[in-house]
Amino acid sequence: MSATTQTAEFKAMTKETYWPVLKSSLLNGNISFEDLDLDCPICYDKMGVHETRDGNEDHRATILPCGHMIGNVCLTRGGLETCPICRAGITHPSCQHPFEGMIMPARLRMLNTVPKELSKGGYITDQCRECRAVEMANNILEHLSEMDTESRGRRNLPPRHLGMVLTLDGHHVLLGGNCPKNMKLVSIDTPKEIKYRWHDFEEGEYTSASEGLVWFGKPTNAKIKFHTFEESNTAVNPDDK
Asked: Which Pfam families match (predicted)?
């Protein structure tokens, strides 16, 4: 094999954007992460392959469940329902929200954390991570409300309305209704039992993802905070601001 042919083959490996092939080349030692020179097949800009200190993942190489890779910014802005290369469906079956993709691992020991492609038995979760988090948060809020009502009843106190703020990726989802007029929102402590249930929910997702078949996408990394409403003559309804 000529040196020119070897050079061409090496260059092709460094620009490979089909994950199973790229993964094989990395595991076999044919190329290293430093050799990679990946172009986004949508915008043709370079895709990042290394972890960033500031956590900015704008154009990191992102793996789709079919195995093809595109830049993260093109995926998130496009709201893609199918892979732009093979046209495989990439939405969550139940909620129909677009799949967010999985950021390409930047370390050799993490390569096997990527689930199998759809053609190899992998599958996308029924709901996106926000819908999963909201569903679980609503279940927890219902459970906490029952606990709170029972506890207050034993002390001859009237039941109170509870709410929750779910924080996901910097934006907030209000559960349990808006703050009524002439009422104020008062934070309450989260019982340990509820903290454990939320922790188990997040740990369960990581465990399922590690089994190698389920495409969850990005980690949930959500936070929950509970509150109640109390009468206040000076309270301002947030909707009136």
From this structure: Prok-RING_4 (PF14447)
